[in-house]
What does this fold into?
Amino acid sequence: MTAGSGGAADPRLLGRLLVTGGAGFIGSAIVAQALDRGWTVRVLDSLRSDVHGGEPELDPRVEFIRGDVRDADVVDRALDGVDAVCHQAAKVGLGVDFQDAPDYVSSNELGTAVVLAALDRAGIDRLVVASSMVVYGEGSYRTSAGATERPAPRRIVDLDAGVFDPRDETGALLEPQLIAEDAPLDPRNVYAITKLTQEHLATSWARSTGGRAAALRYHNVYGPGMPQNTPYAGVASLFRSALQRGEAPRVFEDGAQRRDFVHVRDIAAANLAALDWTTEQAPETFRAFNVGSGVVHTIGEMAAALAREAGGPEPVVTGQYRAGDVRHVTASSARLRDELRWEPAVTFEEGMREFATAPLRASVAP
It folds into this structure.
């Protein structure tokens, strides 16, 4: 099923779906498409204040439970009568500083463990878990000799000198290339570590219980309904929020960082395709899938496109950096396309045009 097909699914595949974090940016898009396909949807969401600036507007067909995925009693109640789970609830983003580490570990790792234990008690065997491209660390590169290389973390002395691109041992630039799911994983900040741990926990659950889990490694997601004015949002939200305030987007480094920007509606469609996969009979009990548009753009290009479409001030390239950031990471989504018959439906140009003036979520608590 493609992202834009909107066709009816096999009724045997449908039932009651629980979406954790279903009131959030990505979760609400999944909920909307699941309802359109014929799922009965229940949402479990804590409405944490660093994500939500107010009460969510949920479709009246949705059964909503307000609660935390770390609360086993609440999760048990949310799973009653459920056939499959999309686990989206998580603390996201690079964070402010290392003082965020306990919250990341508790929200993402403990929360996932509680959900998985509850799935085991309930006898539910179908799971899609939200992962991230951050599990790769730095992206994949090709040397001048044609070999594939995964460079070490960038040195602070180089970043201070404005040397942002990874280089080989001779000092020659490495050529970025698309990264596939079988590449070595190298999480380089606390958030990334927790996303990889979520994958490992899902793998253990699937092997222990006979369930089937798909982990979707989202690349840079954007679209209507992103939260605004929060340090935990993605760069697209930060740029869009600046433009909404009448300010120029501030682009770190030199703006040439390569990313794959994928629209939230395509992310939602990938989740539904992955739910279909969890019903199929295949050797794997766990499978990871990159979810990206397949088209590479730089962060500077995205900032410029948003500013142009919004009629706002041109971006300012600051040369600043964050030590936990990687330079280039772009996805090969061939596995998702080939095995799940998924295709992105929203082009970069269409998506930026829409996102430049689309409503954002209410400002979150300071």
Observations:
- The first strand starts at residue 16 and ends at 20.
- The radius of gyration is 20 Å.
- Residues 75 and 276 are 23 Å apart (CA to CA).
